[in-house]
């Protein structure tokens, strides 16, 4: 029902995590070995061995000093350490979850927020869930215990695909839906509502709608990048009816994951996975008027690793994920690795 969400708490099968380096594993036993943490420095690039994982989303976990990656193929969550080793974290997600996509670490509340959908590419896809099963998973960041599952197949639809997440200081999550052309709000007590459903966020005959999402705390606005149109929308959360297009000095078709930098700039990853005029690049945008307009201040093109989809800011620089999803979407041979490459 619009304005509410079905919340199911339960336990996911996990490999117990350790907080930083010295936390005890559940039950107070000796610390359990996990992914190798980054200490003082990090390599410019990590090639991670993983058969058919196809991660599209990445997040930095300060408690582990490691990366977390999602899985379009399996619907799982894994940890990537400093040596490029892969450690399973969430291995048996809720049965309703087909593909995990965007993620956010809520450090203040020790939560991991994960968007899920079924675009028809996951191993568990089926007709009754394809473009119908969509929502937000919430896990305990330390143990991996599932805290909530919020159904986001809400609003007008008729298709849904929760994709990426932005988080504000209060713990409220904003989730974009490139199939429905919508942005949802999920409060810290897991109540869901539609913030806005707008033509600026909508899909086209040529590709997906809003995929990238970020929250500017100072301005109180959600920023959403439309994948197929290459345009940036500005959504004031206090007045969503005032949603408008940001005047940008260039179109960015194929825009996928986006993130805010500590200095208030917006980083945009783009590709041509489903955008014939998209570029494999990372673009940095800045504003002087609260995102009424923006200009390009840096651009990294061509991106050296094919099909980048997401990026995350770390103490060691910003890393861009190339999860080999081009192989999955194109029906090519199964991927055996993925790459995290620093800007």
TrEMBL record:
<protein>
    <submittedName>
        <fullName>Sugar lactone lactonase YvrE</fullName>
    </submittedName>
</protein>
<dbReference type="InterPro" id="IPR053224">
    <property type="entry name" value="Sensory_adhesion_molecule"/>
</dbReference>
<dbReference type="InterPro" id="IPR011042">
    <property type="entry name" value="6-blade_b-propeller_TolB-like"/>
</dbReference>
């Amino acid at each position: 029902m619009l304005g509410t969400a079905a919340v199911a708490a339960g336990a996911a099968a996990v490999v117990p995590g350790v907080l930083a380096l010295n936390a005890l594993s559940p039950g107070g036993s000796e610390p359990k070995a996990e992914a190798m943490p980054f200490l003082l420095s990090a390599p410019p690039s990590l090639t991670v061995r993983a058969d058919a994982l196809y991660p599209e989303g990445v997040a930095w976990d300060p408690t582990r000093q490691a990366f977390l990656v999602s899985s379009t193929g399996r619907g799982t969550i894994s940890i990537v350490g400093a040596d490029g080793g892969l450690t399973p974290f969430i291995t048996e997600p809720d049965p309703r979850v087909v593909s995990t996509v965007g993620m956010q670490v809520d450090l203040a509340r020790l939560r991991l927020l994960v968007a899920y959908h079924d675009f028809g590419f996951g191993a568990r896809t089926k007709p009754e869930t394809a473009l119908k099963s969509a929502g937000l998973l919430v896990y305990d960041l330390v143990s991996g215990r599932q805290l909530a599952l919020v159904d986001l197949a809400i609003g007008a639809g008729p298709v849904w695909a929760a994709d990426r997440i932005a988080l504000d200081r209060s713990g409220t999550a904003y989730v974009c839906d490139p199939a429905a052309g919508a942005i949802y709000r999920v409060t810290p007590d897991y109540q869901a509502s539609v913030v806005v459903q707008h033509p600026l966020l909508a899909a086209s005959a040529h590709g997906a709608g809003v995929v990238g999402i970020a929250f500017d705390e100072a301005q109180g606005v959600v920023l959403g990048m439309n994948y197929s149109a290459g345009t940036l929308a500005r959504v004031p959360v206090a007045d969503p009816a005032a949603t408008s297009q940001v005047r940008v000095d260039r179109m960015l078709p194929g825009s996928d994951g986006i993130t805010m930098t500590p200095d208030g700039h917006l980083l945009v990853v783009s590709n041509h996975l489903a955008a014939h005029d998209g570029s494999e690049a990372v673009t940095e945008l800045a504003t002087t008027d609260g995102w009424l307009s923006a200009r390009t201040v840096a651009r990294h093109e061509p991106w050296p690793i094919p099909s980048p989809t997401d990026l995350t800011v770390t103490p060691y620089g910003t890393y861009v994920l190339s999860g080999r999803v081009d192989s999955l979407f194109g029906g090519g041979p199964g991927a055996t690795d993925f790459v995290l490459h620093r800007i």
